[in-house]
Amino acid sequence: MGRSLRVGMLLDRTFPPDPRVSNEARSLAGAGYEVHILCLRHGREQPEIEDWRGITLHRLLMPRWFYRKASALSLDLPAYRWALRGALDSLMKRSGIEILHLHDLPMVAEGLRAGRKAGVPVVADLHENWPAALATYGYARRFPGRILISPSRWAEHERRALPHAERVIVVVEEARDRLIGMGIRSDRIEVVQNTVDEDEFDGFGIDPRIVERFAGRFVVSYLGGFERHRGIETAVRAMPALLRAVPDALLLLVGTGSTESQLRAEAERLGVARSVAFEGWQPFERFPSYISASAACLIPHLRNDHTDTTIPHKLFHYMLLGRPVLVSDCRPLRRIVEECRAGIVVPSGDPAALAEAAARLADPSARAALGEAGREAVRRKYNWSLDGGRLVALYRELERRR
């Protein structure tokens, strides 16, 4: 086969942390590829160039205030594209990149341009349905975002751009079906799921201090970002009914985001603030400890075109640690949870149904059966050992074609 190729990854956010990017980069490096990641930094605390687990990080300095809006406006904002262009062209030339891997739709236009210029194949890795996701974000729904940011333009850009990528990676079968419906050839699409690296996650260990803090409570937890489409307000609104059924219930929210102030206000309004714990942002390494402190874990996403075509990592983190999951009826969540019998599916945005389902999980025997089924499903099917293998196989095919 000869020497392995040099892979360049383009990422329009800071790194680390990002579990998907980390899993993919480490799998490729472990298979012998030389991996470079071009990502952002918002200050000079992080070095411009860093060796991270055998992967070379190249960081572009970009103010946080500029980045937050600029990626959504990058179809029309030349300054953002030009900033990326110079750094990407420099990386391609300096590091001799031979395959270019683009993380998410905003990177595709510049990545395709750089790939054509260098004569290298391009892999477009779609973490989510970006046009549909954009329509849910607050800054795209408020003035002036609702005038300046156009999800429909992004959808048209996606339809025109993706056929020029050598391969397109998606995270669930539902996303693959969506792209096939857009006219993308099925043999150019690979499903690489957002599954968990068991060895890494288990290696984080459990902090007994976190577990002990919540001992004696029926803890239902959510870990991740606080944005409107994640449906956390449904969980807060379910608390009065859940507390009537299970007086020691506690909703544990680990993370932060744009809706945190509204969630706190809603908990106060409903009189359940003492039964809703806001832990704030926590390092990824603490996730196993918070999951272990929980009786059940929650993904209450509001169902829409975005959540019907993506899957969050946290589902598999919850399942690996044997916790039953409470999920809304978004298509991928419903499919996986019902197939694995790992939890309970409830209608999106229905606090009463969520409260009733959570109360059912107060029975330890019910929790144990569902949790063990989820753990077994991760070990058997939904793990990064398998999905990383799919990614490496895709790259081996590209290498043979070269």
Structural commentary:
The protein is α/β, with parallel strands linked by helices and 402 residues long. The chain has two domains: 6-195 and 383-401, 3-Layer(aba) Sandwich (Rossmann fold); 199-380, Glycogen Phosphorylase B (Rossmann fold), CATH 3.40.50.2000. The chain is built from 19 helices and 14 strands. The protein has helices spanning 19-30, 64-70, 78-95, 108-118, 130-134, 138-141, 145-148, 151-161, 173-181, 198-203, 208-213, 232-245, 260-270, 287-292, 314-320, 331-340, 351-360, 364-380, 384-401; strands spanning 6-14, 34-41, 49-52, 55-61, 99-103, 122-125, 167-170, 189-191, 218-223, 249-254, 276-280, 296-299, 325-328, 343-346. The strands form two sheets. An eight-stranded mixed β-sheet has the order 3-4-2-1-5-6-7-8, with helices on both faces. The chain has a six-stranded parallel β-sheet with strand order 11-10-9-12-13-14, with helices on both faces. Helix 13 links the parallel strand 10 (249-254) and strand 11 (276-280). The longest helix is centred in the N-terminal third of the chain and has 18 residues, at 78-95. It is globular. It starts with 5 loop residues before the first strand and ends with a helix.
Please give the structural blueprint.
Blueprint: E1 6-14, H1 19-30, E2 34-41, E3 49-52, E4 55-61, H2 64-70, H3 78-95, E5 99-103, H4 108-118, E6 122-125, H5 130-134, H6 138-141, H7 145-148, H8 151-161, E7 167-170, H9 173-181, E8 189-191, H10 198-203, H11 208-213, E9 218-223, H12 232-245, E10 249-254, H13 260-270, E11 276-280, H14 287-292, E12 296-299, H15 314-320, E13 325-328, H16 331-340, E14 343-346, H17 351-360, H18 364-380, H19 384-401
Parallel strand pairs: 1-2, 1-5, 2-4, 5-6, 6-7, 7-8, 9-10, 9-12, 10-11, 12-13, 13-14
Antiparallel strand pairs: 3-4
Helix pairs in contact: 1-19, 3-4, 12-13, 12-17, 15-18
